[in-house]
Design a protein that fits this description.
heterodimer, A: 493 residues, alpha/beta, Aldehyde Dehydrogenase, Chain A, domain 1, seven-stranded mixed sheet, globular, disordered N terminus, B: 285 residues
């Protein structure tokens, strides 16, 4: 990274970073990737291909097949054909296949990390330290469940797989979301058709190679690439279950499409999380948590702490520290190991962020951005703070899915709860205070599926994740994440 | 002794702990299974339904915040109150054409008792502490979803309703229930029991009326978080699920099971309308 970041004297470190680029040699990309159906890469019946780019350079990385309804049908057929044998396989053997996938992911972790940052724009230190290790951990965790399912839901009856699962994932954590979907589905004995996001298909296709290396029976996992139409075709296909992670808007469309079909459905949708800082909070830790909460992965995080609620007595102190910290964030090349904030995932997403930020300015909020230089090519957005935000502002209500923090204030505990819950979403929340009883009180009253107290954006395969209200239903992760992929016979239910 | 004229009951709605008539002024005639006129029953309107949702939402903070022990005792109290009025319930079930009214009432009372006992056990069975790979304490608890709409089954007018209501409220949800259209009187009597069982006003609201008229408003209401569609006729199910999409309602239909069977009661009927909340906190000196 060569761009200099101008800093105010107060915040500027007395030295410059040397660039520390991660080599991309480890990634060998094919010119073209077909659809992964029945254990093989096949040409799409649609005959259509689309380029997938690096959002930090806008260079084309490869061409990817665009699956149409006929291609999706073929993938679903392959999954259906593979289902009886996979279901009948001894659970302990099924477990070992999933363990193999976990191990092979760990083995090729660096390659996956580099490709993830290339294709998605996220900083290499995140893909290297968070996305890929967590993806492997998810497979390892769920692998062990495959032969222990009868212990998971007491007296519920004999667990059996649902059948064929259609799984649609977003572009913000491409491999990790694939792992969240595939690991519990496979462990529970389902076969799957996975559709990666349009802008980030490459690590899923690399994962297909891992499935081959693991000698997973053909058809157990199928991967179809494409955009919204491909996803819609999968939703409408004769699958037994749909699992979707993405926007609330699309989630509602899927709910309507599946109405009356009897298809099982889980939805992980949007969020507008409150990150609440009380006056007694450890401020320096809170600053790190707030920064991580909104700028981790460029704010492309459904559970991002995008609304900061600050108790009035510490507002000035916290804002000063946040502005200083913002100056030290390094924005730029995702492959540079020093980079904190990478590229915006796509031009479309950049335009959406710009539009919402513009609305914030127009509605009267005060904007603050550090004066960093941005690369000329690629999609970039400066880390942004808004103060003077009221609850009616669009930037306080709508999910921006970018590095933009809206700051509001409060005086009492009740007011904090009221403001935090004043949203149709309910995915996550953060609480910063040294008072233990207040943490538990807030944790109880916040209507959100995940509450981080004195931390933020922590994830673990053993920890259930998912929302209240319009943030969706169902849980992923942990014991609870198995439930959507199981049916029960002969017990209580 | 002179002949005494009987004091008849007016069958009304149950909203926010009160017994209003429908604001629409409408009522409809209910007959016995054999077709004999039984009573005029309030025919709830969309506005009544919206009032009921407001009442349910108002009752939610206190009911969901009550201790599990207290909720358990209140559900048990419902069983006690039903036992004292079983002759009335039996008569109403007989009118509704029940094969064995006494059995139906007994099963309904026992169902309240069964779910009452779950109040302070559910979190121990379906909650978790999660061994995350890092210095954090992490736990998951079931919490009530919020306001839940319940469409009671058309048959099994008492046991069917109790089997949907008890699991919904034991976790702290508040409810708007649509009674069996054909045989609403046991539901009306149940409302009268609830009103004298320490169930706080608004926790259960009971509407009588036309199922097909009320379900779409319940399914599309933006302040209803979940809907139990067990009593939604098959031909209305797709539309109901579509309407429920607008605010991402949880939609649940009880599995087909003989309501007298033990399999018809399950903690997993409670979790159909709970949300798993996971809390993280760092561990460190």
């Amino acid at each position: 990274m060569t761009e200099a970041i101008e800093r105010p004297a107060s915040a500027a470190p007395p030295w410059e970073y040397a660039s520390a680029p991660e080599s991309t040699d480890i990634v060998r990309l094919d010119h073209r990737y077909g659809l992964f159906i029945g254990g093989e890469f096949v040409e799409p019946k649609s005959g259509r291909w689309f380029p997938t780019i690096s959002p930090s350079t806008e260079e084309t990385l490869a061409e990817v097949a665009e699956a149409d309804a006929a291609d999706v049908a073929r993938a679903v057929d392959a999954a259906r054909d593979a289902a009886p044998a996979w279901r009948a396989l001894a659970p302990a053997e099924r477990a070992k296949y999933v363990f193999r996938i976990a191990r092979q992911l760990q083995e090729r972790a660096r390659e996956f990390a580099v490709l993830e940052s290339l294709n998605g724009g996220k900083p290499i230190k995140e893909s290297r330290d968070v996305d890929i290790p967590l993806a492997a951990a998810h497979f390892f965790y769920y692998a062990g469940w495959a032969d222990k399912l009868e212990y998971a839901f007491p007296a519920r009856g004999t667990p059996a797989p649902v059948g064929v699962a259609g799984q649609i994932i977003p572009w913000n954590f491409p491999l990790l979301m694939a792992a969240w979907k595939l690991a519990p589905a496979l462990a529970a004995g389902n076969t799957t058709v996975l559709k990666p996001a349009e802008t980030t298909p490459l690590t899923a296709l690399l994962l297909a190679q891992v499935m081959q290396e693991a000698e997973l029976p053909p058809g157990v996992v199928n991967i179809v690439t494409g955009a919204g139409e491909t996803g819609a075709a999968l939703v409408d296909a004769p699958v037994d279950k749909i699992a979707f992670t993405g926007s609330t808007e699309v989630g509602k469309i899927i709910r309507r499409s599946t109405a009356g079909t009897g298809k099982r459905l889980t939805l992980e949708l949007g969020g507008k999380a409150a990150n609440i800082v009380f006056e007694d909070a450890p401020l320096d830790q809170a600053v790190e948590g707030v920064i991580n909460g909104i700028f981790f992965n460029q704010g492309h995080v459904c559970c991002a702490g995008s609304r900061l609620l600050v108790q009035e007595p510490v507002f000035d102190a916290l804002l000063g520290k946040l502005k200083d910290r913002l100056q030290t964030l390094r924005v730029g090349d995702p492959l540079d190991k020093n980079t904190d904030v990478g590229a915006i995932n796509s031009r479309a997403q950049l335009e959406k962020i710009e539009e919402l930020v513009e609305s914030g300015v127009e509605e009267g909020a005060e904007i603050y951005q550090p004066e960093c230089l941005l690369p000329e090519r690629g999609f970039w957005f400066r880390p942004t703070l808004f103060t003077g935000v009221s609850q009616s502002h669009r930037i306080a209500r709508e999910e921006i899915f970018g590095p933009v923090l809206s700051i509001l204030t409060f005086r009492t505990v009740d007011e904090a709860v009221e403001k935090a819950n004043n949203t149709p979403y309910g995915l996550s929340a953060g609480v910063w205070t040294e008072k233990g009883s207040r943490i538990l009180h807030m944790a109880q009253r916040l209507r959100a599926g995940v509450v981080w107290a004195n931390t933020f954006n922590r994830f673990d395969p053993t920890s259930p994740f998912g929302g209240y209200k319009e943030s969706g239903f169902g849980r992923e992760g942990g014991l609870h994440g198995l439930e959507p992929y199981l049916t029960f016979d002969g017990g209580a239910r | 002794m002179t002949d005494r004229l009987e004091v008849r009951r007016t069958a009304k709605l149950y909203i926010g702990g009160a017994f209003p008539r429908s604001e629409s002024g409408r009522s409809y005639e209910v007959t016995t299974h054999a077709g004999e006129p039984l009573a005029q029953v309030s025919q709830a309107s969309r506005k009544d339904l919206r009032e009921a949702v407001v009442a349910a939402r108002s009752a939610f903070p206190a009911w969901s915040g009550a201790t599990a022990y207290l909720r358990g005792q209140i559900l048990y109290r419902v069983a006690e109150m039903m036992e004292g009025r079983r002759a009335q319930f039996e008569a109403e079930l007989a009118d509704a054409g029940a094969a064995d009214p006494a059995r139906g009432v007994s099963a309904s009372i026992d169902r309240w008792v069964w779910y009452a006992g779950w109040a302070d056990k559910l979190a121990q069975v379906v909650g978790a502490t999660n061994p995350v790979a890092g210095p954090y304490f992490n736990f998951t608890l079931p919490e009530p979803t919020g306001v839940v709409g319940i469409v009671a089954p058309g048959n099994q007018s008492l046991l069917g309703l109790v089997s949907r209501l008890a699991p919904a409220i034991v976790s702290g949800n508040t409810t708007v229930a649509i009674a069996s259209e054909r045989s609403p009187l046991p539901a009306v009597s149940l409302a009268e029991v609830l009103a004298t069982s320490d169930v706080p006003a608004g926790v259960v609201n009971v509407l009588t009326g036309r199922t097909a008229e009320l379900v779409p408003w319940l399914a599309s209401h933006m302040d209803v978080n979940g809907i139990d569609v067990t009593g939604v006729p098959d031909e209305l199910l797709a539309d109901t699920e579509r309407a429920a999409a607008e605010n991402v309602k949880r939609v649940h239909r009880a599995p087909d099971a003989d309501p007298f069977d033990e399999a018809a009661q399950s903690p997993y009927e409670i979790t159909a309308f709970t949300e798993s909340k996971t809390v993280w906190h760092p561990m460190g000196a």
